[in-house]
Design brief:
The protein is an alpha+beta fold. The protein is built from 6 helices and 5 strands.
Length: about 160
């Protein structure tokens, strides 16, 4: 970011922002192939996130344009001596603005929100193909400490949790 006026302002997303966020998610080497659901599906997911309380969609704006986004989920757990953590998902910066400091500002905002929520760990996964992103995260002090696994499963229409 070249000027103070170019610094992004980060805020909670609204319903009006969902289509712009989806466009950011799709404007990516991996997102092009996987962000193709009907708009109603994304709006329903956003509604669910809103109801969960610890699940937030954050957007970054410059000159009233949404130029970045991330999802932050606050998780309480027993491991790491009961550490509360913040999980990031869907981290994106507009393609035409990458390399200008927006990603660093985005992660600083996420870290501040995590700290304010009592978290002692900020974590995320990143696709193995994102080599440039890996170098960027490591420059900011993140450590590639784990191997992540994913398995797509069929969601039940009425979730039931084991007791």
């Amino acid at each position: 970011m070249r000027h103070a006026a170019d610094r992004p302002v980060f805020r909670h997303a609204t319903h009006r922002d969902v289509s712009t966020v989806v466009a950011l998610l799709a404007d990516d080497m991996l997102g092009k192939a996987r962000e193709n659901a009907q708009p109603s599906r994304y709006l329903a997911a956003f509604e669910q996130m809103q109801q969960e309380g610890n699940n937030h969609l954050i957007v970054g704006e410059v000159a009233q344009r949404i130029v970045a986004c991330y999802q932050i989920i606050f998780i309480s757990g027993l491991s790491l001596s009961g550490a509360r953590r913040a999980e990031l998902e869907g981290v994106r910066v507009a393609a035409d603005l990458r390399g200008q400091g927006l990603g660093q500002a985005l992660l600083a905002d996420a870290e501040a929100r995590a700290s304010a929520a009592g978290c002692s760990l900020l974590q995320f996964t990143t696709n193995k193909a994102r080599k440039d992103a890996h170098r960027f995260y490591e420059r900011l002090g993140f450590t590639p400490s784990h191997i992540g696994y994913k398995k797509f499963i069929r969601a039940s229409s009425s979730p039931k949790y084991p007791s």
